[in-house]
Design goal:
Elements lengths: L3 H15 L3 H14 L3 H19 L6
Helix pairs in contact: 1-2, 1-3, 2-3
Length: about 60
Amino acid sequence: MSNEKELKDIAIALISQYGEDAEAVAMLRAAEYAAELNNEEWLKWEKVVSFINTIDQSPHLDG
């Protein structure tokens, strides 16, 4: 499983690239893995969604 820093970096990259749509992009990716029954990747992307929400609620944390 990916480490926490890697997942935060993915979240920040998605926010940089997609702005307000970053959460939707991450949720779509999570849904793709869930549909494939790939639990490890699904959980990874669920955590990315969580980090995006945290960063959105506390913009000063996004580095």
